[in-house]
Design brief:
The protein is of the alpha/beta class and 532 residues long. The protein folds into four domains: 136 residues, Resolvase, N-terminal catalytic domain (Rossmann fold, 3-Layer(aba) Sandwich); 139 residues, Hect, E3 ligase catalytic domain fold, CATH 3.90.1750; 164 residues, no CATH class; 65 residues. The protein has 18 helices and 18 strands. It has a five-stranded mixed β-sheet, sandwiched between helices. A four-stranded antiparallel β-sheet has the order 12-14-15-16. It has a three-stranded mixed β-sheet with strand order 13-17-18. Helix 13 packs antiparallel against helix 14. The protein is flat, with a radius of gyration of 35 Å.
């Protein structure tokens, strides 16, 4: 009898109502002892919500795997809410246990002790509804509490870069170690520097910590660990967030997003419905400077004469990597004219350079039309190099040669198997008619010979299987289909993305505007049938 125990405790569980992990384990052990059972394994999900999917709970997921592997006969748990709080998901799990004849015993459920294989399950639906309702009630209470805090101008998501929280709720004071960083960023932008140039200055000329470095520093002071990755270089997104944040003029804005369900993404709230608190704390930047900077940002977006990030369809989106730093590549559009029918030139640029400037990569980009022309030239060259070889593949000669090889290998295999049988037979005879002191030596000698012969048989069988599975007609068809894909791309003004997905593995772009194309299909490998 393979008995296991599942325990779970969530941070949203009311500990006056629900027992701790230790208590759950103790209850299970007492029950098992009363039945004369030994619990072989405890699955413990601590601080894990029962509302998330089964696969997202680490220990529950391991238990599911052990159930599939036949390592579980009985599951002990305190109550049904430990198994899960999502009604439909929990009932589905119970049905699966029934089908596999695995028992679930709940020692202290809301509606009394429950035994899946022996008791009635009429109250299961009610129990799962009760547990799911409890989660929603907790969520509702939390939301009400959060709204009360937000209405008072209290930041719930932690401090803002440039400020520290005091012991008094909702109060912010300036982090003097960061004040110069904020004022420098606003001053540089107002002087006419773009966000990328500001990044370069901060990374090479100043000794300012990044926002994540400051968070890490403050957590270390409190004896805590910063679990996220620490960015040591400034990027344009950091600069943009700082330049647009009204926190630096003394204004706090709360209730920016709202979630209708505890597991759904937050929806953005319109500004008129947000909670705005002016003169909430000491300002680092004057309102006049902040407004000037906002106006400059609007003008630069409107007159972004060089590039736009407007959503477009990029032919090679998802295939490109930077050949210089190995990083990602993004699509942009270059705008040089304001004519009504002017079509912006699409191009691709290294994301690391775009975010960090020359501190991470060199300045380089490539136009999409030039990249497409180079890719077509590459395919034409590849097609012309192999088309003759593909057409010269002689199926009849190949079939005849393949048949002859198969017969030879079969004959070789037959001889090896016969030799193996002779070795086994000879070993038995010699052991039977030899003195006892020689038997071990004879046994070991023949055993070594038999192992070598068996390995030969295995290798020959493998070779025979590979030869039987090898089909030149299929390979030739694949090659012709590949060439057909090449032709479709070469002839099209804009290639089909589905065909590109079948052909392209990666494309690397370099500073000298060159590109390296790597395909998923290995033509040399497909042609190997002829060479064999």
């Amino acid at each position: 009898m393979k008995v296991v125990c599942y325990c779970r405790l969530s941070k949203d569980d009311n500990k006056s109502r629900y027992s701790s992990i230790d208590s759950q384990m103790e209850l299970a052990k007492e029950y098992a002892d009363s039945k004369g059972w030994d619990i072989s394994k405890y699955y413990i999900d601590d601080n894990v919500s029962g509302y998330i999917s089964n696969d997202e709970r680490p220990e529950f997921s391991k238990m599911l795997q052990d159930i599939d592997d036949g390592k579980v006969d009985i599951i002990l748990a305190k109550d049904l809410s430990r198994i899960g709080r999502k009604g439909s998901r929990t009932l589905t799990f119970i049905d699966e246990l029934k089908e596999k004849n695995i028992n679930l015993i709940l020692t202290k459920d809301t509606f009394g002790e429950f035994n899946l294989l022996e008791g009635e399950d009429d109250l299961l639906g009610l129990s799962t509804w009760f547990n799911e309702r409890y989660v929603k009630e907790v969520s509702k209470k939390v939301k009400i509490g959060m709204h009360k805090q937000l209405e008072k101008g209290i930041l719930l998501q932690g401090t803002k870069f440039g400020y520290l929280k005091t012991a008094k709720k909702g109060e912010l004071i300036v982090d003097e170690s960061v004040r110069d960083t904020i004022t420098t960023i606003f001053d540089l932008y107002e002087q006419g520097l773009g966000m990328r140039k500001i990044c370069q200055k901060l990374n090479f000329e100043y000794d300012f910590l990044t926002p994540s470095q400051v968070i890490e520093r403050e957590l270390i002071k409190k004896g805590k660990i910063y679990k996220k990755s620490v960015k040591k270089l400034w990027d344009i997104y950091m600069i943009k967030r700082i330049l647009k944040d009204e926190i630096y003029i003394g204004t706090v804005i709360t209730h920016k997003t709202e979630r209708k369900d505890i597991h759904k993404q937050g929806k953005k709230i319109e500004r008129e419905n947000q909670y705005i608190f002016e003169n909430h704390h000491e300002a680092i930047i004057s309102k006049e400077q902040f407004e000037r900077v906002q106006e400059m940002m609007k003008k630069r977006v409107k007159n972004s004469s060089m590039y736009t990030k407007k959503k477009r369809d990029y032919i090679f989106g998802g295939f490109l990597r930077c050949g210089e730093c190995g990083g990602s590549v993004t699509g942009l559009a270059r705008v040089r004219s304001k004519k009504e029918n002017y079509i912006p030139k699409k191009l691709y640029e290294c994301v690391s350079y775009r975010k960090y400037g020359k501190s991470r990569c060199v300045c380089h980009n490539v136009r999409e039309d030039i990249l497409l022309a180079n890719f077509k030239s590459f395919l034409i060259l590849l097609r012309d190099n192999y088309i003759t070889e593909i057409n010269n593949l002689k199926l009849e000669e190949y079939k005849s040669s393949k048949k002859k090889n198969i017969e030879e290998i079969k004959l070789n295999l037959k001889n090896l198997e016969a030799e193996y049988k002779v070795l086994v037979s000879q070993r038995i005879k010699e052991i039977a008619y030899s003195a006892e002191d020689k038997r071990i030596f004879i046994e070991n000698t023949y055993k070594s010979l038999e192992e070598e012969k068996y390995k030969e048989i295995v290798n020959v069988k493998k070779k025979l299987k590979e030869l039987k599975n090898e089909d030149l007609e299929i390979k030739q068809e694949k090659l012709k289909q590949t060439i057909d894909y090449f032709n479709q791309i070469i002839e099209a003004d804009e290639p089909d993305k589905a065909i590109l997905n079948m052909l392209i593995d990666k494309i690397y772009i370099y500073d000298d505007k060159s590109a390296k194309f790597e395909l998923k299909i290995d033509i040399e490998k497909l042609l190997s049938a002829k060479k064999n």
